[in-house]
């Protein structure tokens, strides 16, 4: 058995920050933040330097502003990361954004400072470790600090409302009609549910109150339907047996996601009905 030998990137004469950047750019999934794609690297920020990596979820379109640090985190690192995140979210407000700090050492002092911001800034901290394996090198990333979920599923959320016209342009008339069909299935469980149009998703209202046990994200050719549920083996097996177009479990928002195309098949209706029923019964309960 080959023994993994951790090494210090900061002290390495050959493995540079540029090398780390290239490894992530070649395969952003190694960060463990989902099946992300590279949008840009060394992205120029007006009057503020360059953003190491800009990544994006191709389905939700959520963007991740990633800053790399060899060695331990420091004050300039956090300021730079937040500054780049703020520039990008102001430049492209149509997307959801998260700041990501990657460093070899996430210090306790750093975590204490970050906790002061994390209620308002969606910030993720990843501890990076490099290993020497024979003549090759490998990187691992462990999430030390996760963003606090906000602006999506809380009953007391403050979101930017939109309307159906907005979503017909962002998605299509066809996928809005499909969303209507999905709502009819949901109404079998919660008869008073109605669509609640927000900028980043379509949620639910029940008798005037937000109740997002399911949400919808219409695209041009399909709808992503999400069910707020804890991840369990039972649900995993139910989805697998239905043979539907499912997406990876969203650990950040604690939800299962299905990609639903033109026609709502009976197997999809049955699964949607069951998942919506589960989500409705557990909504608002501690995970």
At a glance:
The chain has 287 residues and is α+β, with helices and mostly antiparallel strands.
Structural overview:
- By secondary structure, the protein is an alpha+beta fold.
- 30% of the residues lie in helices and 33% in strands.
- The protein folds into 2 domains: 5-145, Trna Endonuclease, Chain: A, domain 1 (3-Layer(aba) Sandwich), CATH 3.40.1350.10; 164-282, Alpha-Beta Complex (Aspartate Aminotransferase, domain 1), CATH 3.90.1150.
- Strands 1, 2, 3, 4, 5, 6 and 7 form a 7-stranded mixed β-sheet that branches. The protein has a 4-stranded antiparallel β-sheet with strand order 11-12-14-13, covered by helices on one side.
The name of the CATH architecture of the largest domain is 3-Layer(aba) Sandwich
Largest sheet properties? 7 strands, mixed
Number of separate domains: 2
Terminal-residue CA separation: 39 Å
| Overall pLDDT level | 84
